[in-house]
Design brief:
elongated; alpha/beta; 3-stranded antiparallel beta sheet
């Protein structure tokens, strides 16, 4: 590896250089091989052309995985809510101010698992090309499109385009005062009876529903919260919900729970 190549890889740890050059880095054979299916490979450093010391110098990980690649970022149009009539419309996940790279990477990987192809992020959400995010996605960036925009304006525009009450986009949001996402009664034998959360009943609207997850510490911002039409919450079950417990769930785990419940057969 040349000194300039090593310098290039190291610089891509910083967002300003990733944005300026339109590049990002990934580490580990599994992650790199997945990303090669969709992203243009610019540079590859492994045991065939780099020493272990050079890999260590370029790596953003505490324990380098032996291979590092530089890819070109994909740029595209903003996410659009579909107005097409059809079955199995995929939900769109909105992230409002997610700050932790590990959380975003895990959310992208979770979205991939549950068949969510678009994530719309607020402008203050962590960069999806951050090395820690890329690593946590394990290649799911090839199948999940991540968009950055003014979230309030984007959701408002989506709602205004389909303002007819009979054809209104459902906007789900996780809030402390939302309806229990498990609104059913579980008997002694584990059998579930009663109605499910009314907001998770089959949606009559043939438009892609929107699911909003908020910041790790503050939740959904006040401006975005006003746009939620279907508030939901994940209740605590510690001693029947009466015992003292943590203040909230990790946002990546909460996202997985919401998507799993959203995908559960009605």
């Amino acid at each position: 590896m040349t000194k300039s190549e090593i310098k290039l890889v190291r610089s891509l740890r910083q967002k300003k250089f990733r944005d300026e050059l339109g590049l990002f880095i990934a580490e580990g054979d599994k992650c790199i091989n997945e990303l090669r299916k969709h992203f243009e490979l610019v540079l590859l450093a492994d045991s065939t052309n780099a020493t272990s010391k050079e890999i260590e110098q370029m790596s953003a990980l505490r324990a380098p995985q032996g291979s590092i690649a530089v890819f070109r970022q994909v740029t595209g149009d903003r996410c659009q809510v579909s107005g097409d009539r059809g079955q199995n419309l995929q939900p769109i996940l909105c992230l409002d101010g997610i700050q932790d790279p590990g959380n975003l990477g895990t959310i992208i990987r979770t979205a991939d698992w549950f068949g969510v192809h678009d994530i719309v992020c607020s402008l203050d959400t962590v960069d999806c090309y951050n090395p820690k995010v890329v690593q946590a996605t394990m290649g799911s960036l090839t199948r999940v499109r991540v968009h950055y925009t003014n979230l309030v304006e984007w959701i408002t525009q989506c709602a205004s385009c389909h303002s007819d009450k009979k054809d209104q986009i459902p906007i789900y949001g996780t809030l402390l005062d939302g309806e229990n996402i498990y609104d059913s009664v579980i008997g002694d034998r584990g059998q579930v009876s009663g109605d499910r959360c009314q907001y998770l009943q089959p949606v009559t609207c043939n438009l892609q529903p929107i699911i909003i997850m908020g910041n790790e510490g503050n939740g959904i911002s006040k401006e975005v919260r006003k746009l939620v039409t279907h508030p939901i919450r994940i209740p605590s079950y510690a001693d029947g919900g009466s015992a003292e417990t943590i203040e909230s769930l990790n946002v990546a785990i909460a996202t997985a729970i919401v998507l799993a419940e959203f995908r559960r057969p009605k």
